[in-house]
Amino acid sequence: MARQARTVIPGQAMHILVRGNNCETLFFSDAERRIYLDWLREAAKQFGCSVHAFALMPNHVHLLLTPLNEDSLSKTMQSLGRRYAQYFNQTHHRSGTIWEGRYRSSLIDPDYFLRCQRYIELNPVRVGFESSANDSTWTSFGSHIGGKSESWLIDHPTFWRLGNTPFERQMIWARFVKEGAPHWEDQQITAALIRSKPWVSEQFAKRFFKDNPEEALIRTRGRPKKLVYIQ
């Protein structure tokens, strides 16, 4: 069976999921997590991806990034995946793949971007690893509220529109994440990601998928409304 073509539009954000083979652990220490992030930064810079958010879980990784070119995403993920797998196998005296097949990817509507970023930064809370986003060490949440900073992260334009100053953006983001997301929204994001389908509005689909806009939509209960930024 032929592989399903990925939907990648240069300049549009992508939600990425990579998982350990057979749900096996990918990170046994903070040092390994640090190496993965450092190599993500290097690969993204080399191949033209802006990284906006991340969550490193024991056996899977969520990323939110924007590829600048059609092949930026594939080259970034291939370089990172191969480099980390080689390091992991050498470190733990093993061989073979450490990844569960191809990474999953979901094109994100700019109007839904902040909801997707919240989904990623709340991942440790949603799966029961932490009680709040503030307790999560290996996500990008700290960088977005003025705490632990990953200076190489690049904020998306929609994040910049949250406020006129860094402090305003940080406060608004902290409140938005603390509110949490409705269950149906989490379901939609998960369904789109697992199926490597876009998470977009009908308007976005009609604009970018003119030949077959229905192919870009997953029909479930509810659709997100455009966020109104309250300063």
UniProtKB/TrEMBL annotation:
Domain called Transposase IS200-like: residue spans: 9-123
Matching InterPro entries: Transposase_17, Transposase_17_sf
SMART domains: Y1_Tnp
Pfam families: Y1_Tnp
An annotated GO BP: DNA transposition
Transmembrane segments: none
Signal sequence, start to end: none
GO MF annotations in UniProt: DNA binding; transposase activity
UniProt name for this protein: Putative transposase
Native species: Polynucleobacter meluiroseus
